[in-house]
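Researcher: Go.
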Amino acid sequence: MSGFLFPIRKHLHRKKSEASLSGEIEFHIERQANEFVRRGMTHEEAMRRARVEFGAVPAVQEECRESWGLAILDNLRRDLMHALRTLRKDFVYTLLAVATLALGIGSNTALFSVLRGVVFQPLPVKDDERVVLLDRLDSKTRQSTIGFSFQEMQQLRAQGKSFEDIAEFHTMSFILLGRSEPQKVDTAVVGANYFDFFGMRPLHGRTFLRGEDHHGADGVLVLSHRYFVQNFGGDPKVVGSTVRLNDRVHTIVGVLPPLPDFPARIDVYMPTSSCPTRSGQQFESNPRFTLVRLYARLRPGVSVEQAQVEFESILSNFRKDHPGVYPASVPWTPRALSLREELSRAAKPTFVVLFAITGLVLLIACASVANLTLARTLRRRREIAIRMAIGGSRMRLVQQFLVEGLVISITGGLLGLVSAQAALQLLRSFAARFSIRASEIHLDMPVLLFCFAISLITGVLFCGLPALRSRVQLTSALKDRGADSNTATGLTSRILVGAQVAFSLLVLMAAGLLLRSFVKLSQVSLGFQPENVVSVQVRPNFTNVASTEAYLRNMRGVLARAQAI
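Model: Structure:
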């Protein structure tokens, strides 16, 4: 690293380095001249003799600059200035090349940011690689069950040797009173260990304390950051205030930092003791009453496969102990799933395919720019021939073309980055259909590095390499007798055109298949007429609904009044 930075430091302090070099050269000349003076020469004759023996000062200075690495930087600086002048002169080529690469690089950058945010980025939870979702799959419908019963949860906690900790979670909607008007809030009902399980630390106040999920504990709430900002104006003084929920006064004890909506869109969090359904006697005594969702943290060294085996064994024993709860005619399969993989399972295939398609778009763009560059190189054959005739090396010319290519590709990358940022909002809305992690999609440093990397690779491979394939016949070029009949260049051009056609066909085929699938799906009969049909959800206050019969009686009354309208 020191050797790499040395020429840069010399370049940044060039005046000082040049003055030091001149002083050192003069010191050596004067020292030799003094030696000649001691031998009996006059001062003028000694200085002349010393300069002759020392050699040409400019040559020595240039040799020193090369040893410092400044020659490389000087050549790059000159190549950059020449590239800017040349590209400004050939404006149409520059505009086409930059716009083409911006399309390819921008689409790839946008899709990479989606893949990173939804699939590859670690979850914002503690030791996310050890967190698993405990689930059951109905073997007939291939749909997950609605949850676990209280007795199943207790048995898993008591017998699960693979699990370091288990956290429960379920959502309900309640009416919050105490503000200017009643508000429906999406509420997460969790155990007191929930926030410590996921490593969530409060932005203001605190989270739940041990024992606040026990029967008889005071009602407390923790607000999500989004709800805190939207409904309380981001005022930290809200901590300690009270609201009414479930006909019960709750104290707001904390506010979470801005975290993704995980595992669902949540407004407020309450302990299990505050939920009339979760804390009710019916849930804790009836093994048929499945409600909660379970997350487990594996012990260090325990694999998901090992946890799966133990999980199946515990639930199999529970099923044997409660034969009436799960009849043999109800097939289901226990599953212990990596939480990160489960959250990205629905989104991964879709966005991997889209990323592959945008990769083809980038290859088409690169092939197009490479052909433009080849054609431009042929038009510049006289300039190339003159530079070679006066001593310019082939590698020196290739370096010039590489610099021009990098200027184009990096400019295209910057414009692509702007277009990717503009497309992210649309992509977030689209990704939200597949994953709750859509809010984590943004242009962070890895995405910027990816954009920079593909810009460099594009510039080197498809803007610089065509220069390596060009051959200039000096005699014909200097006489300007038309384009060179270069077999290698012609073959390269034909290969690039063939690649463009092939990649374009792949993209068109994929687009055609997607369009065909969309048309087929739009023609599928739903089995009913959806026109003029309205769906309404009614959520009663469960504090005042003591039984299933009371719930059904209320719903029948609502239905009868709605049918009368």
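Model: The two ends are 79 Å apart (CA to CA).
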